[in-house]
TrEMBL record:
Protein name, per record: Aryl-alcohol dehydrogenase-like predicted oxidoreductase
Domain NADP-dependent oxidoreductase: 17-307
GO terms of molecular function: oxidoreductase activity
InterPro entries referenced in this protein's UniProt entry, alphabetically: AKR (IPR020471), AKR2_Oxidoreductase (IPR053135), NAD(P)_OxRdtase_dom_sf (IPR036812), NADP_OxRdtase_dom (IPR023210)
PANTHER family in alphabetical order: D-THREO-ALDOSE 1-DEHYDROGENASE, NADP-DEPENDENT OXIDOREDUCTASE DOMAIN-CONTAINING PROTEIN
Pfam families reported in the protein's UniProt record: Aldo_ket_red
Amino acid sequence: MTLRKRPLGRSGLQASEIGLGAWQLGARWEWSGPGEEESLRIVDEALKLGCTFVDTASPYADGRSEEYLGRALEGRRDQAVICTKFGFWAPGYQEDHSADRIEEAVELSLSRLRTDYLDVLLIHSPPFDLMDGTAVPHYQILQRLVDAGVVRAYGVADRASSADELRRILETTGSSVIETNINALEQGQLDVIAEAAEAGVGVIVRTPLASGWLSGKYDASSRFAGDDRDNWWSEEDIRRRAGAVEEFRTLVPEGLSMAQAALRFVLAQPEISTVIPGAKSVAQLRANVAAAEEPLPAETVDAIRAFGKTNPLR
Ligand SMILES: NC(=O)c1ccc[n+]([C@@H]2O[C@H](COP(=O)([O-])OP(=O)(O)OC[C@H]3O[C@@H](n4cnc5c(N)ncnc54)[C@H](OP(=O)(O)O)[C@@H]3O)[C@@H](O)[C@H]2O)c1
């Protein structure tokens, strides 16, 4: 099976409907992620399976995500559609979204990725005031990079994943691509992405597995020592997530893994161009890509939609 492609809005780019979230590549501290060898294997297998859309960012794994991608894609750059981001800097995720540093960041990404163009450049989780394209020069600079052929499409990866944020981005920035959080537990953005698609904006969906929760392998006693998730959730957050996941489990058709059901739920939304689960191993990548083989039954999609309206996380 090779993955289907969907248009990335009206950007002219096509994205595999399941893409590769590349934050995990080389991310030993953030995700107890794979080292270089396994990272190269993941990218190689992704291309073989037709999973050609790749989402990275310059600070991921202190720059190693982009570096490993560059190595893996050497000599076959044209087989992948690469999305990277500006606004946080390696090492250590230092935040600097200054407009006069965009070109410097692009040069660094091009060098790590061993390429001379970026398919998509997103402003990475900008603060709210940078989402008003009428007030800041960022989007004119991005458009100049598009005109120069260095970047093919630009947009914004939102920060808080709220409807207000996303509407402001759509209305003022000229973005042709946006990236936001959507999964069975966080469905608040579904209405806004319908507006994005209507306007011809490509939609990239991140965290489709709720950062691992929707695989069903965690419960209220889970702790994440050894990776960054240890800092993200209080005991109360973990308890609430565990409860929501147990409810979600009851909606999954027999014989289907929870992770695959979660991915199929996202794919069932026609407004979405690509969904980018992060993979820590070739096995996870293969399982994620296999989710695209069949659609989720319509009644299950409806049941998960109804669950999303009542669940406590959004
Ligand atoms: N602000 C931003 O721009 C931003 C923020 C977040 C993410 N992203 C992008 O979105 C991508 C996806 O989001 P995410 O990685 O944060 O969350 P995610 O895709 O919801 O979860 C990924 C995690 O789920 C687990 N997993 C993946 N496939 C699995 C499978 N088949 N079976 C069981 N477990 C599986 C793995 O962790 P364990 O095995 O350890 O559980 C993996 O690290 C990232 O890689 C990144 O490219 C961007």
